Amino acid sequence: MVIYSLLIILLIILLISIFDVFFLYGFVSTIVFILLLPFYFIVRVMNRKFLYGWKEKLGFFKVPELGDKVIMYHGVSVGEVIALENLIKKTKEIFPQYKIVVTTGTKTGQEIAIKKYSNVADFITYFPFDITYCVNSFLNKIKPTVVLIAETELWPVFSSSCKKRGIKLYCINGRMSDSTYSIYKKFGFFFKYVLSKYTKILTQSEIDMNKLLSIGAPKDRTSVMKNLKFDVKPSNETVDIGQDGYRVIIAGSTHKGEDEIILQIFKEKRNKYDDIKLLLVPRHTTRLPQIKELLESMNLKSGYRSQGDSFKDYDIIILDTMGELGKMYSICSFAFIGGSFNKTGGHNPLEATVYGKPTITGPSIHNFRDIYWLLSRSTAGKIVKTPKELGEYIEKLLSDTDFYNQACKDCETVFKDQQGALDVVINELKEIL
Quick check: pTM over 0.70? Predict the structure, then answer.
């Protein structure tokens, strides 16, 4: 058995020495892909999951005439697509002669991309399967001048194909979780070759940079750019809903089940602190009738933003208008960010942090995990596991003035430390375009 194992290892080494490592990977992965494809279809259908984007991922799609000047951005899912928003818009402004192509890897990412970039991007589609035929079909149609992949997706065939075609390939906003790092570290000998195909690797932090360097990223082409998601600016609009003299708590983008949690906590705290008010912001206004019933069952009265109601008359105001949540964070003392006590994955806390306001979130944060990681390293943000823990942390922010003031300062510090990433990428593009 040992002899056979040694022979197999020697055979692999021989093959790698004869063929390009990416050719070997591409050949093997294509065979495995073809063999597993029928099972993939069957499993998806049995689980009642539609095969969104499979034709595009296989390379079967029509593309408009893009010409020979194309900048391509890729964000695999919702968080990455949102992070690219300001950068893509800035790119269109600075390089109007270039066509913009945006790709995603998931259905939800595709929906967000279409919603945000329909008037900015010239073409939106799915990223190809990392199979030689799919990648070649994709690149033959798109013909990108430069490809910028958000965060850290290492696709061997795609990166090798870009290198062979002379396409500039960037990893931007790069990050690597501890779990991903432990896997990549074991196969560092392989990923070293993948990383060598990149023109530049730009990471969110020194920690991320050092992880990538340790698995073989080229030292002369790997550096810190900070985090794109922090390149946001506060609104200049003023808000007056009678908040002067009160401490306003915002429950932003709440989902079903979270209104009950925050209203019960607020009701308890209101008995102790008579200067606090609550701005309740449901993620979906279609839930307003259910929220009204909930308030009545808890003997709580509320006003409505659409009716011009004020905190001078109500302890609770429901934000039932569209597009105003961002500027509302300017008037709060701190905020609970919803979509985090269910499977939604959380919402963007930076809308509050940009005003120097601390945030609290539940445990479901996968859409903005990197941001919450940065915020929770200080008192700028707090991830709680249970409603009880949420109530306890709100109590601390309300009762401990020194702690609250430090949390506000930490918000400002985090933003100051992280801003500037957008300019780094734009400057890179100016050098090569």
Answer: yes
